[in-house]
Specification:
Elements: H1 2-5, H2 12-23, E1 42-43, E2 49-53, H3 58-63, H4 70-81, E3 91-94, H5 108-125, E4 129-133, H6 135-141, H7 148-151, E5 155-158, E6 161-166, H8 169-174, H9 179-196
Helix pairs in contact: 2-5
């Protein structure tokens, strides 16, 4: 069904809007019973850089947009230092589109039920670089044994894309001493973007 949408005249963004409309109606797991909003994703659908978190928090659930609370504000500040912005040249999504109660880690069946939406987002956007925000996303996309404290900032090739894991913004709020190391990850990301997808910085 969705593979056809990528060829409509509006292009990739139209495909994502159709996918979003379907996702907003999703009731494939129990998280639909407690959500206020489905948090589909936001950003430039033609980007080469996709950020993936684990799931929405309270503020995200209320607004329907990823990373808009205190952690999201910190993320935006860090992005701005390396000339990245959800309004211009990246896309941000989550593994699960509905908030897990009390912001707990998403359960295996919840991730499995939501996997189709993220897979289709990745197909439509077709990023060259994926950045996993936090351990939960990194163990899914990089390695089940990924250690964010030891392997953050490293690039791994997965399915023809480069994937990097870094600290989750919420973890940085709890552990401010980790902010310099996380910022180094973002500088490494900036250099990698300039190397393999320099168009990301056009018109900035």
């Amino acid at each position: 069904m969705y593979d056809i949408l990528i060829f409509v005249s509006e292009g990739i963004s139209m495909g994502l809007e159709e996918l979003r409309a379907e996702c907003l109606k999703c009731e494939k797991c129990g998280l639909c019973a407690t959500r206020h909003n489905v948090v589909f994703g936001v950003g430039n659908p033609k980007t080469d850089v996709l950020f993936i978190g684990e799931g929405p928090g309270e503020n995200e659930d209320l607004k329907g947009e990823p990373f808009v609370g205190r952690g999201g504000q910190l993320l935006d500040k860090m992005l701005s230092v390396v000339d990245l912005s959800r309004d211009k040249n990246i896309y941000i999504a989550n593994m699960v589109k509905c908030r897990p109660p009390q912001n707990r880690d998403p359960e295996e069946e919840e991730v499995a039920a939501c996997r189709q939406w993220l897979q289709k987002q990745i197909e439509f956007i077709d990023p060259k670089i994926i950045v996993c925000l936090g351990r939960v996303a990194a163990i899914r996309f990089i390695d089940p044994n990924f250690k964010v404290t030891k392997e953050h900032g490293q690039f791994f090739e997965k399915d023809g894309r480069l994937v990097m894991g870094t600290m989750h913004p919420a973890a940085l709020l709890r552990n401010p001493h980790s902010k310099p190391a996380a910022m180094e990850d973002f500088f490494a990301l900036q250099e990698k973007i300039k190397e393999i997808c320099p168009g990301t910085y056009d018109n900035i």
